[in-house]
Amino acid sequence: MTGPSTPRRKEADAHAAGWLWLLPRLSFVLFIAAVAALLWLSERADKEEQRATLISDMLWLEQNLRFVLEHNEELLGQIGPRQARDPASFEAHAHTLTGNQTGLVRVLWLDSSGTVLAGTSGGTEPDREAARLALTIGKPVYGGPYDAGREHWQFDVHVPVFSGGNAAGIVIGSYSLRRMLEESVPWWLAERYRIVVVDAGGKVFAARTKVEAPTGEGGYQLAFDPPGRGLALEAVPYRVPQPLAGRLLSAALVVLAVAVLWSMWALRRHTQRRLAAEQALREEHAFRKAMEDSVQTGLRARDLEGRITYVNPAFCAMVGWSAEELIGRKPPMPYWVDEQIEATRALHDRILAGEGPERGFEVSFKRRNGEVFPVLIHEAPLIDAGGRQTGWMSSVIDISDQRRAAELARQQEERLQATQRLIAMGEMASSLAHELNQPLAAIAGYNAGCLNMLSSGNANLADVEDALGKSTEQAQRAGRIIRRIYEFVRRAEPKSEPCDLVTLIDEVIGLVEPDARRQGMRIQREIDALLPPVQGDRVLLGQVVLNLIRNGIDAMRDVAPERRNLSIAAEGEADQVHLRIADHGHGIPPDVAARLFEPFFTTKAEGMGMGLNICRSVVEGHKGRLWIDPNPEGGSIVHVLLPTRRR
To answer: pTM surpassing 0.85?
Structure first.
């Protein structure tokens, strides 16, 4: 019985715990609902009381205004024809009526035909239709509101006067709506409400209000009859702030209830957040472990003493040692290369001291089988939650494949450069053949002369020696031409040595000058004889100068002969040499200029599109710059900047 009852007890305890957590919430909700209901009922009772007071006040005001109007009707009806014919008597009676603070501002007396016999000055013409209606029905008739000037609205009451059973005339009393409200509405009523006279469309004809006091809601409106004509009295209560003490008491109750519940909720949230944080930490650890296990980059963490604290599977696969064998190890590490162990230790100590390279650096590691391979390492400090550095994290990349790819690309570029040089020499074959033909023909001529002198039997030894000497000079000249071609065309490893640009440019000019003369080109040389030497490969730089000069010559084939001038200038600028090759061709269109240095882009039918691309690669490989600008005199200027020392 004990065993089966245990799960039920646990389930009951969990159910009871759920109710214990639910009771504070339910109590809080009920308390807030009770306070809110109390406040709502109190506010509603106040509003109903204010509404009842408003209606009562408006009914009193209506009765008061009605009494004033009816009393004035009686007073106006007491003005008979005799008073109307006596100006002094009429003036006294009218002055009494307009001064009794009932809103009357003018009194007129009309005979039965509508002619004004007496009255106070000012105002508009009387409404004779309303006057005739009053005589007809024998009762006072009220007219509609009208503007007496500057938004000052008035209305008239027409009181018929009878004498001996016959109509004697009409007495008209003009009321000012604004004055009526000011004189008839008591101050205590004006302190509570904004009282206005409006029509059915909401247009305000007169108002008694405190401009500085804001109005609230819940206005009340009743008909203003008399005078009628769609007019109504409207009262809107002023907004009165609620008592501060009641608000403070209600707020204090709510704040106390919230504070009690918040303390319980805070404990519950803390427990839930702790559980959620632990779960999130487990999930984050699993996620990061899966991510670190999937990357190909090796990850290695070390503490401030250089002891390995973490390695990922990629690093273990890279060096051949397991994580158990590496974690906890201190220098020297088993994957350090034996021949470089001192240099590696010095770099290791610099990194731990915070003096290592800011960017990635390359070193050599050793696999477990003894194979040495290059790696690229990036170091970053390990920072804990308190902002303190606890060690270093390294990302290690095996760059063996990149090295092999770079070497293959370098070899391909060398082959391409050699091919470009062979193509250049092939195009210059005809001009070089002409250049070699002259010394060979001279040698043949000198040899034939020597044979003729020897066969004649009267040979002069001095003449023979002179002819043989000149033949030797021509043979040496031909040899120099062939040697220059061979040195330029032959393939060799790139070198880094001091290079005299003056001599190099002269040699290149010597190669292209025969072809240039044949095409009517003139090469102008403006080179500073004291140019400092540059550091680089003489053969590659010669190829650059040759390609740029040949491009300048090709650009001027279609221009007039007098414009076929190629200018070659070189001068020193600080720690650089500035070479300029200017032609006077047709120039380079902008769309072509944007693609000049792209591989395999050419404007020549027989070109490969690699010349300028190779030139820029060679110049940038020497830490220099190459660019092209338009020539102000027509054509283009090629600029080459080469440093005089390695940067």
So the answer is: no
